[in-house]
Amino acid sequence: MSTAAPSLWGNSTRHVRLALALVVTTLLPPLLWAQATDATALASQHKAHAALDASIQALGGPAWVGVRTSREHVRIATFFQGSPTGEVADAVISREHPNNKERIDLQKGRVVEIYSGQSGWEITYKGKKNLPVEKVKDHRRWRRHSLQRVLGRRIGDPATVVLDQGTEQVERHLAEQYMLMNAAHNAVKVDIDAQTHLPLRLTFEWRDPRFHDKNVDTVEFDNYHRVDGIATPFTVTRTHNGETVQQIFVLRTEYNVDLPENVFDPDYVAAHLK
After folding, report:
1. Which domains does the chain have, with CATH numbers?
2. Which of 3, 21, 43, 83 has its CA 20 to 30 A from that of 140?
């Protein structure tokens, strides 16, 4: 009577089934979890892009994206440690958006600030002088994080990752929050009104180059009016590390205006300022 040779896997196929079951139950959940995670991330990306596209359309769509120039008549209130200083200035702000040029006329044009590229100047009847380096850096930082730069450019950059951050309240409005992160890992959060799809708040962080501490800057948009088909916030509030630093109240605004020649030339302005 012959005896069957013992199996390499054990004395019965039952052990083989148990071993295979153990392998499947061990490996399958992580695979399914990874697939579910990828599917969830993809769905989040689609939702975020759709929401930001809706926000761009609410702002005016191609008309908003294609703004070349603008001129705003505003009233600027300044703050110190979160409290109003009582100083209020009327100004005219002219911008050439594609080239990131800006001119601010203060005191009925007797004081002019011009920002172009990495430079900034103050012009008075005494002549032209360079603005403080830190003031120019701060201005450039705010411009890099303007709505036009964040929504108009980053959203179309394939290297930008957009994430759904859930909902929260922004000044009595239910807002959907989205994070945009570019290839350099610079992140910006945008809060969008859940009903109107208009931006309510934009937040970004940066580190002080000297002290390396983290700073949080926020700009809030309110009191929207439609001008030339473009939704325009007539109240803009800026905060730094939780404290209000400036409020801008728009009195009148114009888009795609023909700005005077040499309006951003500091030498020309200095020669003609009276």
Report:
1. 46-96+145-256 (2.50.20.10)
2. 83
